[in-house]
Design goal:
- Helices cover about 35% and strands about 20% of the residues.
- By secondary structure, the protein is α+β, with helices and mostly antiparallel strands.
- It is globular.
- About 0% of the residues have low confidence.
Length: about 525
């Protein structure tokens, strides 16, 4: 993906797109892949970077949703488990099996969760993973010696999927481009255009150049996640909000707190959520909280009480009790939950997606979660066909291999997440061996990935690279801050920027990264 080439395609003022998508998170990118794969001319505009908001701040799980099974939302669990199976097939380089332990500390929990997880297995059907198993106390501690042994009765082990959310987002953008879509980051939609009361396009501004573009499109899709209400207000000024924003916080700990490859799942916390402690990129992610908030923001900040909620709960289940000084990074994401009007807490709101069409023809797809992004895209384009009078074509995405498809993790190492594109990054190192150097001794990334991100993944700013093209900011915020000056230097060389740009980028990034550190 080369941004200048995307802009040149957008520059054709007489072009009428079949589908224009506002929003470059999981939902919008899923819609773009769905639309482009069916052969419709497709444009996606994202105000920030791809997955800059909620879509890069998940628990990193592709799962059916144990909590939704508890709530009795069988249809959502069925759909999510089906989509989990498809994604494991379509992107094996990005999505992998992950085992989870549910520890039982009461006599009734073993049979209760054992039966529940057998139902979970059964719902997955032919696309299921390994079967769940009830384990004795001794077997649990053998597999997880750092689990709190006091009052432990046994446990249940089950299987779900794990992924890197921001990396999947970039992969979807690349896949959409492979299919002919035009995808642009840092392109903010400021208005909808109408003719005879019907939406006929958008007005967008390139935030890097300040240039305005008037885009004509047969259909316009509002896929802006936590910001869908702001687009709906462009359509109808007195629109009633449909999003009930809820903040979820995760903390990242050293691998020593949970060695091995098995995650921990606690079915019910004090705020009614499921709590996970998951091995990820040689760290442990603990989350998540559920805190209702008044309004969404692009860079939410964890509340102190949320961080200590997670530390307290982690201490209940791990022999090595984490404290604030152990937190390598703390990050917040805002869930785009649909306001049903009858729930007293956001923890009780499900992650079903909500598709609506306004009288003007604006299509809005809201809610949902990463696991079901493909189905959300399929439903959206199905709705767009009659609205835009598009030639009907069936969905192809159920069995569509995503960009970089590869099952050769060992052969692609150390760039396995890039799939078969790893060979191109290795060629960069062949031409310039200095790019094989790590960006920091405590981070698993190389300067070759920085160069690749700028040249081929539309990384425009320092935080694009350190937060999303790599996950340095999440894995170790302080280490990413130390790496920032040199990464900025390499980016500046690629982008043709001067020392002033470097200094400004580092200054901006350090301010951002400080919000990922725990203030004591």
């Amino acid at each position: 993906m080369i941004r200048s080439e995307m802009l040149s395609r957008l520059d054709r003022e007489s072009k009428i797109w079949d589908v224009a998508i506002i929003g470059g998170g999981a939902t919008g990118l899923g819609v773009a892949v769905e639309s482009a794969s069916r052969g419709y001319s497709t444009l996606l505009l994202e105000q920030g970077d791809f997955s800059q908001g909620t879509s890069s701040r998940s628990t990193k799980l592709i799962h059916g949703g144990i909590r939704y099974l508890q709530q009795g939302n069988i249809s959502l669990v069925l759909e999510a488990l089906h989509e989990r199976g498809l994604l494991l097939q379509n992107a094996p380089h990005l999505v992998h099996h992950q085992s989870f332990m549910v520890p039982n500390y009461s006599w009734w929990e073993g049979p209760f969760y054992g039966v529940g997880l057998k139902v979970y297995d059964a719902l997955a059907g032919k696309l299921g993973l390994e079967k769940s198993t009830v384990l004795s106390r001794e077997m649990v501690l053998e597999k997880m010696p750092t689990l709190e042994p006091r009052d432990l009765k046994g446990g249940v082990i089950y299987y779900d999927g794990q992924f890197d959310d921001a990396r999947l987002a970039v992969t979807l953008a690349q896949t959409a481009e492979d299919m002919g879509a035009c995808v642009l980051n840092y392109a903010q939609v400021n208005a909808l255009t109408k003719s005879n009361g019907l939406v006929g396009g958008v007005v967008a501004i390139d935030k890097l150049t300040g240039r305005e573009y008037k885009v004509m499109s047969r259909t316009v899709v509002n896929a802006t996640g936590i910001f869908v209400d702001s687009i709906l207000k462009m359509d109808v000024t007195h629109h009633e909000p449909i999003i009930a924003p809820s903040q979820g916080v995760h903390i990242v700990l050293d691998k020593s707190f949970l060695p091995g490859d098995i995650a921990v799942m606690v079915p019910h916390t004090d705020d009614g959520r499921v709590l996970f402690a998951v091995p990820w990129h040689d760290r442990v992610i603990v989350g998540t909280t559920d805190t209702p908030i008044d309004k969404p923001s692009l860079e939410p900040v964890p509340f102190t009480e949320e961080v200590f909620f997670l530390l307290d709960h982690a201490a209940k289940y791990l022999t090595k009790d984490p404290v604030a000084e152990d937190v390598l990074s703390a990050f917040a994401g805002i869930r785009p939950l649909i306001n049903t009007g009858n729930s007293k807490s956001t923890a009780a709101l499900a992650r079903d997606h909500h598709l609506s069409v306004s009288p003007s023809g604006l299509i809005t797809i809201a809610g949902g979660k990463w696991t079901t992004y493909r189905k959300m895209g399929e439903d959206t384009i199905d709705a767009a066909i009659p609205i835009g009078a598009l030639y009907p074509r069936k969905s192809r995405t159920r069995n569509l291999s995503l960009n970089g498809w590869s099952m050769d993790d060992a052969g692609n190492a150390p760039y396995a997440l890039y799939g078969n594109s790893a060979r191109y990054i290795k060629r960069l190192v062949d031409h310039d061996p200095s790019l094989d150097e790590p960006i920091h001794e405590r981070l698993p990334y190389r300067f070759s990935e920085v160069v690749w991100a700028v040249r081929n993944e539309m990384a425009c700013f320092l935080d694009d690279v350190l937060s999303r093209r790599t996950r340095a900011l999440i894995l170790d915020a302080r280490a990413s801050m130390e790496a920032a000056p040199e990464v900025a230097r390499v980016m500046a060389k690629e982008l043709g920027k001067d020392a002033t740009w470097q200094q400004d980028q580092v200054k901006r990034y350090l301010k951002l990264a400080e919000s990922y550190l725990i203030s004591l």
